[in-house]
Write a structure and sequence with these properties.
Layout (H helix, E strand, L loop, with lengths): L1 H20 L48 E16 L3 E9 L2 E4 L5 E3 L4 E13 L3 E17 L6 E4 L8 E9 L13 E21 L2 E4 L2 E24 L2 E3 L7 E3 L3 E24 L4 E23 L12 E4 L2 E20 L4 E18 H11 L6 E15 L1
Antiparallel strand pairs: 1-5, 1-19, 2-3, 2-4, 2-8, 5-6, 6-9, 7-8, 8-9, 9-11, 10-11, 11-14, 12-13, 14-15, 15-16, 15-17, 17-18, 18-19
Length: 403
Amino acid sequence: MKAGATLLNAILLASTSLFAAKKQPEPPAPQPKCCIPQGEPLPCCICPSFNAPAAINVNYKTCNCMCSDWNANVNFSFIYWYAGEDGLKLASTGALNGGVLYYNENIQTVNQDFDYKPGFKVGLGLIWAHEWEFRAEYTWYRARNVTHSGSLSGTVLTGGIPTTTAANGTAVWVVDDWFLAGAGGQALSGSDVASVWRLNMDLIDGVAGRPFYQGRRVIVSPYGGLRAALIRQSMTVSLTEATGLFTGAPFAVGTIPSQPIKSHNFSNSWAIGPRFGANCEFLLPLGMRLEGDLAASILYTKYTSLKHREDNASTSFNTGPFTSQIDDYSSVRPEADCSLGFGWGTYFGCRDYHIDFSAKYEFMIFWAQNMIRSALDDTLTGTGPSPSNLYLHGLTLNGRFDF
């Protein structure tokens, strides 16, 4: 009996030792919520839930996947944009015969020329709570474009305007409503027309948004905020007058000498209003991506000054000089912009930092911005056309650094 008990105790002791020697599995360590490199494709193991945040999120001087509550970024862009504006027609071809102005049967026109000009953007950003993004950006752009019509010479055959009989005359440029001296009913004309258009534009954007994954390789970033715009432009039209008669009422018949005169026109405005938009990125291998952006603003716009001043067209009548001015004209103007391009970005330094480069082509339109021409036409006729649009498009090269 005693021997059996001893044998049973030995078996139990051996079994206890055997199970104790076997290593028990350790519970899995809790995973920090920010170990996913945001801004890159999601791993397959991520379970569907609410849209996961996709803002670039760098670690705070650590290699153990523990993120800071916030990180910042800076960016700089070189822009090469084409700026143009509707409603800046200068003159049409015509003929001067016996001091009377005629239009050609085959009319040619000359409009203000436009071209690409460089500029830049600078911006600051803040990523808060691993997902919310706040951005502020300043855009600087300046343009100066010169147009020269070239001189007209020889005789041309004209028809039915203002008479019904064709007539031979000296070729001239018939200038649009850039000179109030033509208010008597007959436009000014000249042998040569030139112009200089200047545009100074400053934009400030402040927006907030939340980038999120719409799919493993699709990131959508809706945002909203404010846009402020400061737009100044001027238009100087130079005309070498052709000698002729000025017969329009209410002025008496007078002679226009052959002389150079200029029309100076200025527009200063500031604007501010809400801005909403969204950016979409399709992530490609090796950190590459395709991206597009669409945004719009509704801007309260105040024209602090609209001015016109011109040289004397003649010293024998209507001597002038004419001036016109509109102060504190207010309105609401819409604005829209979009872009399409590609980019590349990557983390480095144990994910303490992130760099990003992109190239895209942008389009931008400010509706009804050209109040210079609208104010002149309204002064001359009382029923001027609606203000014309200002538009820009061109290349934007951007570099961004997150830290």
